[in-house]
Amino acid sequence: MASGGGNNRNGTHRNSLKGTTTTSTATDKPLSVNSNPSKPAFKNKSSPLTGASSGLRKSSPGSLGGGAAKDDAGVPGRVRVAVRLRPRNAEESVADADFADCVELQPELKRLKLRKNNWDTDTYEFDEVLTEFASQKRVYEVVAKPVVEGVLDGYNGTIMAYGQTGTGKTYTLGRLGEEDTANRGIMVRAMEDILAEVSPEIDSVLVSYLQLYMESLQDLLGPTNDNISIVEEPKSGDVSLPGATLVEIRDQQSFLELLRLGEAHRHAANTKLNTESSRSHALLMVHVKRTVKGREPAHSSDNGNSTSMARSLRPPLVRKGKLVVVDLAGSERIDKSGSDGHTREEAKSINLSLSALGKCINALAENSAHVPVRDSKLTRLLRDSFGGTARTSLVITVGPSPRHRGETASTIMFGQRAMKVENMLKLKEEFDYKSLARRLDIQLDKLIMEHERKQKAFEVEIERITAEAQNRISEAERNYADAVEKERLKYQKDYMESIKKLEEKWMMNQQNQGNERKMVHIAEEVAEVKKLLSKETSLRKAAEEEVDNLKSQLAQLKMSEALANSEILKLRKMVEDEVCQKEKLEGEISMLQSQLLHLSFEADETRKRLDRGGPGKVPGGLDSPVSQVRSQLKGSGNGEKASVAKLFEQVGLQKILSLLEAEDADVRIHAVKVVANLAAEETNQQKIVEAGGLKSLLMLLGSSEDETIHRVAAGAIANLAMNEKNQELIMSQGGISLLSTTASHAKDPQTLRMVAGAIANLCGNDKLQTKLRGEGGIKALLEIVKCGHPDVLAQVARGIANFAKCESRASTQGSKTGRSLLIEDGALPWIVQNANSDASPIRRHTELALCHLAQHEVNAKDMISEGALWELVRISQDCPREDIRTLAHRTLASSPDFIAGLKRLRIDY
Ligand code: ADP
Ligand code: MG
């Protein structure tokens, strides 16, 4: 804690008339405020108490009169103490006339010398030493002004007077200066400065005035409040008096009246209590709230980027400073007060507060851990002033009379200790949210009103714009309709004109063309005539030559007539031979001629397309079934075969196939014959199928009613059906039903032979068994046999044998179970019946079929009952083919049913 005149000097640095010193080693050294580095420097004479400049708003930061503390910890600020000496009053001038004053002041050295006796003094140093001549103004400026400045800047401040009764405490603090303005005390001057600084519109100055007497706090502005409670805020340590009257001060006059009123109440109270004002403590409290203009709060984290919007929403920053001016009760000892019995208690109370204050100051001065603040109301009220956050200035008042040397010494000691008390000054700054809310409310109302006005104006504007837009739209629509009509009429007119012009042009063209045509025609005629003329000429020439030639020939003929006559006999014989040959070929030639007719027509077209030579040779021998065609081709030699191949090559398969659907029946017949011929050659089969020939042939079976076509087509299909892949195609394209229908309508056994041959080929396909049977293939074969022609029966037998063979294979592999489908469809009687046929192809196939059927036990019973057993026995013995014989034998020997059957029929086998 900084000390202005610490214990080390107090009473230890003494000047003695005898020149003796007691303790100090620095006897002759003048006391220097700068000698102790921890001691604040008081260089500025104009503000000796604080180090602040005398200008009200020029205080330097960190000093008592300085700027804002920038953190919560505050800045250190020692309690400043001034001593003021009252001039001798009239009584003293008389009573102490022969005595010197007990104090001697050295204001320039800020020292006070207290006379102990005629030759010994104690020297004390204060922050300011005010002589009996010090003016009230000067006292205000050095003691109070820095504190008042602090209050205006948001610090709490305390100005207090301590001293014996009659030494001028009230004179220093409370003089109103009504008789002489120069006498105005600190209270009046402080208020003058405050009022000069605050803005009445945004700042406020509130005052309460109280008296503390015998531990009871009385409201001097509301005398009925005679026991006001003290409320301490635990967090901030702030003390407030919620019961005290607070009067807002707007001008100096009202403040003076308030002080007068307070004084009157104090006087009344003291009269009532039968006491003097000197025995009570008077407290004036001034609450100053100021709005900080254009400044951020000290603790704001604003980084300077805030927008104006943010600024407008920021609550105003306010600083609240509280100035407490305390006129303490007299500090004199009780025995000197001249009071009666009652005042002893009273003095105790007075001294309770005062002595508590003294104890607190002692504790603070000694940095003691415990400060007994709660011992009295005065110390509770002043807890912020000593060791708190306020700036505190204490003026101790002393009188000059040596008779009161004791009180004076005690007062001086009090002041000395108070100088050691260090406060931590804190800026009382906060955001005024209430006022922000008020301001925002007003702003909001304004905005709402403005918004409503704008909304209304906007609606009116929208209506106006809508109406205008409607007008414009209807006008635009009218204009558009007019324009469209105009355009339409214009185009119509243009169009009519164009048509007219075109017609004229056309007429002109027609005329021109007519003339041209005539000219061309004449030229053509001329050319034609010329041509005829030259032809006539050449013909005439040729005729003349012929005449000459004939003439010479006639001569030759005549000459050779004799020779010729001998030859005639010879030639006659040759002619007869020729006639014979001619008759033979005539039938064939007539057919070829008709064919040639069609093919030459076709060849013409083909030639055009292929840009080739003449129609070539037309193949003959097509008017017969496949086998006949084959034999005919064989018979007519390689030349004809080659012509079919040549035709195929020249005309193209696709073209030939397309003729299958020709409208002319003859062409169709010839075409199907050619295709049948081609299908007989294995090399052509694939090409025919790929080119869609198979499909066309099947279609012909269904669509044509011509039996020749049926026969030849069925023959072609039979040839194609030799290939396994084609068999599937035939089946998938409804071949069985087409072939069955064809058979049912057939009259020619050759047709039936072709159909049966085709089905027989299909019967040899393992995969198609079920489908073939399902579509009536077997039934169709059994129908066909009705015709009785051995060639037909041979094909049927082949088909049945094929089917039986496949079925037997499937049964052996396990993919077929149950009775043979042949037996199911009733083929067995026919097989048995024909098994011993005279025609060897029929017999061979039926024998084979029986053997295959016999391979499977499931067929045995039916076979036995249908008489197949006999045939099997015969086959096993008589069949010319050894493999069939062996097969039959092995089957009979291995089948239990057959063995049983043989036994039953008593066939010895
Ligand atoms: P206190 O309040 O300490 O009891 P007062 O202020 O009432 O003392 O002073 C007592 C008397 O002394 C008053 O008449 C006052 O006018 C007078 N007095 C005090 N100080 C001075 C001074 N500095 N100059 C002139 N008169 C003074
Ligand atoms: Mg007084």
UniProtKB/TrEMBL annotation:
GO CC term, one of those recorded: mitotic spindle
Region (Disordered): 1-73, 293-314, 607-638
SUPFAM superfamilies in UniProt: ARM repeat, P-loop containing nucleoside triphosphate hydrolases
UniProt cross-references to InterPro entries, sorted A to Z: ARM-like, ARM-type_fold, Armadillo, KIF11-like, Kinesin_motor_CS, Kinesin_motor_dom, Kinesin_motor_dom_sf, P-loop_NTPase
Bias-annotated ranges (Polar residues): 32-62, 300-310, 625-635
Coiled coil regions, renumbered to chain: 448-486, 526-595
GO BP annotations, alphabetical order: microtubule-based movement; mitotic spindle assembly; spindle elongation
Domain named Kinesin motor: residues: 78-421
Signal peptide (residue range): none
UniProt-annotated binding residues for ATP: G163, Q164, T165, G166, T167, G168, K169, T170
GO molecular function: ATP binding; microtubule binding; plus-end-directed microtubule motor activity
Keyword Acetylation: no
Keywords: ATP-binding, Coiled coil, Cytoplasm, Cytoskeleton, Microtubule, Motor protein, Nucleotide-binding, Repeat
Main localization, broad class: cytoplasm
ARM repeat spans: 651-693, 692-735
Biased composition (Low complexity): 17-27
Compartments it resides in: Cytoplasm, Cytoskeleton
Entry similarity comment: Belongs to the TRAFAC class myosin-kinesin ATPase superfamily. Kinesin family. Ungrouped subfamily.
Subunit structure: Interacts (via C-terminus) with NEK5.
PANTHER family attached to this UniProt entry: KINESIN-LIKE PROTEIN, KINESIN-LIKE PROTEIN KIF11
Protein name: Kinesin-like protein
Protein's organism: Gossypium mustelinum (Cotton)
